[in-house]
Amino acid sequence: MRHNYKHITLNPFCSSNPSVNDIMKMSIAVLLPQIVMLFVTRSYNSLILLLCSTAAAQCAQLIYAVKKSRALWSWPIIFEGLIVGMAVPSGYFPIHLFFTVFTVLLLQNFIFNSYAQGWANAVVVILIVLYFISPDLFPPFLLPHEYFNQSNAGSRLFSEGIVRAADFDTRIGNFFNSGIFYSWGISVPEGYITLLWDSQSAIPAFRFNLLTLAASLILISYKAADTLVTYTFLIVYGIAVRLLSLYPYGGLIGGGDILLAFCTGGTLFCAFFILNRFGTLPMTAAGKCVYGFIGGISMFAICGAGTSSAAVFFCLLFLNILSPAIQYIEGRIYDVQLHRMLIQAGIKRG
Predict the structure, then answer these.
(1) Do residues 237 and 300 make contact, with C-beta atoms less than 8 angstroms apart?
(2) Residue 332 to residue 339: CA distance in whole angstroms
(3) How far apart are CA 181 and CA 282, in angstroms?
(4) How large is the angle between the packed helices 122-133 and 311-344, nearest 10 degrees?
């Protein structure tokens, strides 16, 4: 007897990992404290851009939904619009932002049909397009290159008046240096608490590094971030900065400023919220390690020791272009391994 079922579920089976929609909801939720901080710091221009980008993403989804009879609301699309809105400078033109986000996300929907199937990272593509439309609106490097010939180059941000130290910076820094880090023989230079709390960047995504770290812990515990890719990327980049960032400018090997590199230029935000986009990552552990390693090296080659406002996007674009090649090699290796297993089992492939 035939039965017509209206709903098909996986019960009694369940997945140990959250769905794409659940991951997107969690990612948006952990970004809300940073949006609240934009209100607190009266960064109204950034909030307007955030609203424009999110509205453009939803408009693209509405047109696609009407044309293809799909859902009118998409959490992944809203997330992409939110990320773009946070990654553009506060002085960007809202009209340019709206139509760029709308166009790219609409094309993404019609080309790939599914967020998880697309190999192109739409957020990176949008940010690169926005950069070429108005490159002068993206701030230059915070520090001249000649300042990187000595350790703790980040202290120049405060001595030169580029970043204003927070009132609580000295008190908290002294507390950690005398009470926690003293026994380890290390200390946090003055001003770095400010970089962690609010780097005062024109790009909202680059500002609240401490909130980004807290959000990353939640995402990792929720299995909403690929830790292998992210950790490999950050470790390789950190080692490269520590060992080599001073050498091209006449400094010593091993004196690079890792905190400066991580707290400026959007390193942490991009590593946890943009790098792990579904469809762009290799599938195997070896492929992910290679992907993260190349990402760390290219990040250092393109961004140097940080303080750039747009270089990280070009690094992510390079990785996005490289990803299909890594995934192709993974597929070929899998075919060879499968062929050997079938031969050992005495099975001929059709």
Answers:
(1) yes
(2) 11
(3) 38
(4) 150
Q: What beta strand segments (E) does the chain contain?
A: none
Q: Using DSSP, state whether 121 is helix, strand or coil.
A: coil
The secondary structure element, H or E, covering residue 340 is helix 311-344
The mean predicted confidence, pLDDT, of the chain is 85
In degrees and rounded to multiples of 5, residue 199 shows phi and psi of -75, -5
CA gap 242, 273 in Å, rounded = 24
Q: Please report, for residues 42, 52, 101, 151, the alpha-carbon distance to residue 97 in angstroms, rounded to integers and kept in the order given.
A: 21, 7, 6, 38
Mean pLDDT, residues 258-272: 90
DSSP letters along 38-76, please?
HHHTT-HHHHHHHHHHHHHHHHHHHHHHHHHT--S--HH
The identity of residue 52, as a single letter, is C
* Per-residue pLDDT tens over the stretch 56-111: 999 999 999 988 878 888 899 999 999 999 999 999 999 999 999 999 999 888 88
Report d(CA 350, CA 284) in Å as an integer: 26
Q: Which two tokens stand for residue 173?
A: 């820094």
Residue 334: CB atoms within 10 Å: 12
Per-residue tokens: 192: 């770095």
Q: Which two tokens stand for residue 244?
A: 């080599």
pTM greater than 0.85: yes
In three-state form (DSSP H/G/I as H, E/B as E, the rest C), the secondary structure along 125-156 is HHHHHHHHHCHHHCCCCCCCHHHHHCCCCCHH
What does each C-alpha distance from 296 to 154, 238, 273 come to in angstroms?
21, 8, 16
CA 265 from chain center: how many Å?
A: 11
End-to-end CA, the chain:
35
CA distance 298 to 300: 5
Is 320 strand, coil or helix?
A: helix
CA distances from 272 to 46, 76, 192 (A): 21, 15, 21
DSSP assignment string, 286-298: HHHHHHHHHHHHH
Which range, 159-168, 221-230, 283-292, has the best average confidence (pLDDT)? 283-292
